[in-house]
């Protein structure tokens, strides 16, 4: 009887597992299988950060926690679920991960003052000594203690600016943080990412980005008014008629703090150097997956620079890199099989999520599967439309 009972349980578990993996993860599925709550998590200095928590509703299994910290809004606020759970995070929803989206300090519904690429402080001594690494640490510590059925393992994931915050979590030294997936991370806004390329101001990117995202937010808000429509026709005409940076600064006035700071620091001085992530990438304990696109005009520098720096300065870190045929952040979209008229032979974003990102995080956060086959680097060769894996990658 015991053997029959065991066989029955084994068969039942098999079919339950298969059913879970054949179900379509969509908005209705998420509503049935996840519960959402919103909390204000206190940081060490008393500032509270808005955090949306999505937890599986059934089962007593222990689940890992996956976090993204963002300046771009942790919404939708209220009862509505984030579409990330059935789009780019569908693998983790199916696996029953506890999924977290947080507004960073000073953005949207979080308290405090926002600072662009807030410098890392390696010598924090007082409660008032805060940075993005300490905010990541305090967030993890609260979640581990206040969420039932977590397995004590935490991962961070983010692309572009959220990729910067993921790297700050890697520097937090919280023992529960086991894996970081950082895509096109903002790394050095003077030498190669977004605002400058090799020190030359990327005027269109800088003005367009900062005139919108850089607007002040004195108190927590769920919504902001639209940015001013500076471009009445096209960017070329707009900048041609502006007749110089001074006029652009006058157009923005004193409200865009970081734009004015960029204007005050035209050289790679100590202000910019403090906002370079790379000098702090030593003794990184979590495993790190660095993601980038070979057609990324914004942060390809950050991808390659982050990998190179960790590989050189923290050689004990379990480090992988993937480079795909993507523009900025396109690996998070549902189907990337081409760029213009160039066809890649299949859905490259699906390949990344199912064959690299998910196995990487599932291995380190759930202890399931294997990652030996990933190699050091996974690289797409667009000439032959083939993915190739390498045991070594130059730094």
Explained architecture:
This protein has 395 residues and is of the alpha/beta class. 33% of the residues lie in helices and 20% in strands. It has 12 helices and 14 strands. It has a 10-stranded mixed beta sheet, with helices on both faces. The protein has a two-stranded antiparallel ribbon with strand order 7-8. It has a two-stranded antiparallel sheet with strand order 11-12. β1 and β2 (48-56) form a beta hairpin. α4 packs across α5. It is globular.
- Helix tally equals 12
Write the H/E string, N to C.
HHEEEHEHEHEEEHHHHHEHEEEHEE
Beta fraction of the residues? Answer: 15-25%
Low-pLDDT residue spans: 6-19
> What do the pLDDT scores average to?
93
How would you classify the helix and strand content by structural class? alpha/beta
Main features:
globular, ten-stranded mixed beta sheet, single chain, two-stranded antiparallel sheet, 395 residues
Q: What's the topology here?
A:
Blueprint: H1 2-22, H2 27-33, E1 34-42, E2 48-56, E3 63-70, H3 90-94, E4 98-103, H4 132-146, E5 150-159, H5 161-170, E6 177-183, E7 196-197, E8 200-201, H6 203-213, H7 235-242, H8 245-252, H9 257-264, H10 270-273, E9 287-293, H11 300-313, E10 319-324, E11 338-339, E12 342-343, H12 348-366, E13 377-381, E14 386-390
Helix pairs in contact: 4-5
In a nutshell, what does this entry contain?
The chain has helices at 2-22, 27-33, 90-94, 132-146, 161-170, 203-213, 235-242, 245-252, 257-264, 270-273, 300-313, 348-366, and strands spanning 34-42, 48-56, 63-70, 98-103, 150-159, 177-183, 196-197, 200-201, 287-293, 319-324, 338-339, 342-343, 377-381, 386-390. The chain has 395 residues and is an alpha/beta fold. The strands form 3 sheets. A 10-stranded mixed β-sheet has the order 1-2-4-3-5-6-9-10-13-14, with helices on both faces.
């Amino acid at each position: 009887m015991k053997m029959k009972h065991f066989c029955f349980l084994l068969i039942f578990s098999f079919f339950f597992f298969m059913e879970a993996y054949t179900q379509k993860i969509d908005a209705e599925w998420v509503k049935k299988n996840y519960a959402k709550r919103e909390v204000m998590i206190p940081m060490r200095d008393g500032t509270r950060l808005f955090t949306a928590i999505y937890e599986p509703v059934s089962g007593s299994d222990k689940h890992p926690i996956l976090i993204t910290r963002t300046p771009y809004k942790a919404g939708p606020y209220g009862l509505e679920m984030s579409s990330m759970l059935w789009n780019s995070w569908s693998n983790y929803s199916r696996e029953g991960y506890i999924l977290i989206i947080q507004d960073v300090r000073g953005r949207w519904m979080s308290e405090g003052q926002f600072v662009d690429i807030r410098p890392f402080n390696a010598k924090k001594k007082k409660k008032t000594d805060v940075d993005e690494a300490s905010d990541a640490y305090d967030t993890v510590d609260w979640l581990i203690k206040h969420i039932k059925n977590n397995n004590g393992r935490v991962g961070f994931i983010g692309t572009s600016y959220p990729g910067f915050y993921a790297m700050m979590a890697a520097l937090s030294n919280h023992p529960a943080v086991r894996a970081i997936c950082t895509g096109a991370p903002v790394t050095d806004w003077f030498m190669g990412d977004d605002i400058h390329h090799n020190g030359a101001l990327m005027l269109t990117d800088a003005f367009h980005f900062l005139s919108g995202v850089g607007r002040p937010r004195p108190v927590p808000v769920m919504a902001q008014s639209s940015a001013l429509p500076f471009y009445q026709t096209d960017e070329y005409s707009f900048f041609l008629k502006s007749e110089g940076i001074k006029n652009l600064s006058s157009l923005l006035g004193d409200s865009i703090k970081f734009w004015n700071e960029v204007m005050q620091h035209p050289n790679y001085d100590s202000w910019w150097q403090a906002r370079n992530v790379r000098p702090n990438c030593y003794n990184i304990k979590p495993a790190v997956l660095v993601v980038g696109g070979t057609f990324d005009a914004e942060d390809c520098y950050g991808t390659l620079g982050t990998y190179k720096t960790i590989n050189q300065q923290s050689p004990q870190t379990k480090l992988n890199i993937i480079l795909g045929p993507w523009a900025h952040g396109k690996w998070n979209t549902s189907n990337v099989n081409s760029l213009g008229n160039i066809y890649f032979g299949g859905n490259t974003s699906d390949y990344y999520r199912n064959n690299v990102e998910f196995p990487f995080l599932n291995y380190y956060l759930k202890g399931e599967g294997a990652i030996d086959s990933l190699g050091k680097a996974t690289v797409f060769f667009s000439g032959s439309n083939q993915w190739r894996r390498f045991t070594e990658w130059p730094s």
